[in-house]
Amino acid sequence: MTPDPTARPQRPERPQRPQRPQRPERPQQRRSDSQPSRNRSQQMPSQRTNPPVPWLYDEQEITPDPSASFVEYLRWMRSPDHEQKNPTKVQILQLAENQADYRQRLEQLNKRTKLLAERGQQGQTFQVKSSWRIRVGGHRGPESMLLPAFDSLGMPYLPSSTLRGVARNQAVRDLMQQQQLNWKQANKAVAPWFGDLDAPNKSNQAGKVVFLDAYPLPKHMGLSVDMANNIWNWDNDNLKYDPKPNPFLSLKEPTFLIGLRLASTCQDLQVLEKVKTWLIKGLQSGIGAQVNSGYGELLTAGTSHKDDELLRLPFALQGQLIHGRQTFTDWNWNQHKNQWQTRGKPDAEVRPIALKSMLRYWFRVFAGGVLSTTAVQTLEGQLFGAINPQQQWGWVRFHIQDGRVIQREPRPHKGGQNDACGEQEGTLILSASLNLEETVRQPVQQLMKNLTWMMFHLGGVGQGARRPCYSRKTRERAPWYRGATLIPESKEAFWELPDTPQDFQRRFQQRLQGFYDALQQLTRDSVNPRQLRCNPAPQRSRWSEFADANCRIIACSGRIIACSGESDYDKPYALAVLHDQDLKIKDRRNQWDYDGDLCGKVRGGVTPSPVWIANLANYQVATVFGARETPRSTYVEHLRQKTENRQFAQVFPFN
Amino acid sequence: MTSKQPQKPKSSPEKTTFDPRTLGTPVYEALDALRSQNSTDNARLKEQKSQAVELYTYLSTWGMMRLKAEEQALTSKEKDGKKDVVQKYFSCLAQLSGVHELNSPQGLTKLKDLDTEEYLGLTGLGLAIAQEFSFWATAVYHDSGDN
Question: pTM value?
Answer without folding.
Answer: 0.86
